[in-house]
Specification:
single chain; alpha+beta; 53% helix; 566 residues; 23 helices; 16 strands
Length: 566
Amino acid sequence: MPIQSFTNLSTGASNSTKFTRLYNNQFFDYLSEQLPKDQKAMMQWCEVVYYNSPAIVNGIKKLISYPITDFQFKTESPTIREETKKLLQSLDITSHLIQLGIDYYVYGNAFRGIYYPFTRFLQCPVCNTRVNIKQANYSLKKDKFILTCGNCKNSRAATIKDEHQYDPSNIRLINWDPKQVDLLSNPVTGATNYYYTLPKALQQGLARGEEIMAATLPEVFLKAFAQQKQVQFNDNFYHLKTASVAGYSSGWGVSPLAPALKLYLYNSILRKSVESIGIEHITPQRILYPQGTSSDPSLGSSMGKWKEQISVALERWRQDPNYTMLAPYPTGVANIGGQGRGFMPTAEIQQTDKDMLLALDIPLEFVYGGLQLETSSVALRVLENQLKPYVSQLTRYVNWLIDNINAKYKKNFCQIKFGDFTLADDVMKRQLLMSMAGQGASLSTVQEALGLDPEEEREKTFDDNIKSFKENKKMEVAQAKVEKDITARAAEREMAEANDTVPQYDQQKLIAMAQMKAQEMLSVPYEQRRSLLAQLSNEDYVMYALVSAQMGSMRKTIEEEGGQPQ
């Protein structure tokens, strides 16, 4: 039953007073009388609730941000995938979807469109000279551009020539204000026509001939301004809406904030009472008075003098907290107020905030924190199922954008989908999927559950395998070269042995041995070193020469590094 009919019910006798009929009505209360009576007023009230309730703002922002995951691109072509990714980045699609979610949860409706950039030219009707509107000398009268032609010097109503800029990076997404939109829906077929009323600020800008309006607004808006009519939207228009009962506002979605409006009004009354309590009862009023004794002090002294002395003493005490006040006779103190904390309806306000979140079906843990949502598999599943229809609408909307841009610019951007929405804290499900990889669950399914793009992962895996293959081939070539070198040396040695031409010394081996002996010689005392060198000279003079040369080289190196040779 519509809210406005509640007060029309009569429960008393025919001769009952209006007061009796009103308060005997079980549907009547003061807050119900304050609720909006039409769709546009409902939207304005929902704006008030959103901007004045921290719990609602916090809850809605988290609810709309949480299910937005990375995009997955439905194409096998890396080029098309990169081009589509760049397009969505230029549209700042993530921020746009968050703004869309706010409209969706506040108004229950989100109206979107695409602005295709163009350059406006004005063409002189006399000499057909065309000039960019930014360089033109013109005045705007309703939808007519009175152009003073720089060629023929005539001032006539110019012809508008708009040339579209075929650059997807300059496309802008439009957020239409639902309060400016009217719709007419066929309840049988579901077909709906949408009409847009130009805002006052836009009309005022056109009336002044502002270039930002005249040069960029499509011509249909100029005609609507001139004729004081609404703009009927065509195919370049998308409507996302929440579910609604069949008999209420056909064609409109119902704001999820609607059940919270009455709670917000109740909350406002409580907060207003807190304000009144704070003003009247928080700061106490201190009163000083002469303390009565066995004899009335007012009979023997002047009360004006007492008041003057007390006032001076209080002023000095405010300047110096250590000042000691002297009173002519006993003085009493009484405090009025200060009991406001006991009057504060803090618990009621907190409970009302929670009730508003429940009206929007926002988990309290989103706003107040806690582990209940993270540890309850039932809560996870309920929230996931709650958000899936919303994510499905976002997916259809983004693909609608891509289809329209493809049709406009003859492009081939691919369709997208969001990564499968699963709660990040659903760890058990992810671990189970990882254990099933290749054994009942495909690798792509596991990657998507982990928030990875299977196409990108396949490309990365392919690149890694190619790099690994190249490294393995290089290793095989190097090993083959070493083996060939060893085989060749072995063959040469065998041939030398067969011909009795084996060299007496292996040069590299002798040098290595000489280096080791030189290091040993340098590590022993000088007298012992001389004895060892003399012995080596008698036994193997070639080795003695090599060791002496290595020791000289080592001493030189030590000296160059600033050390003291031994």
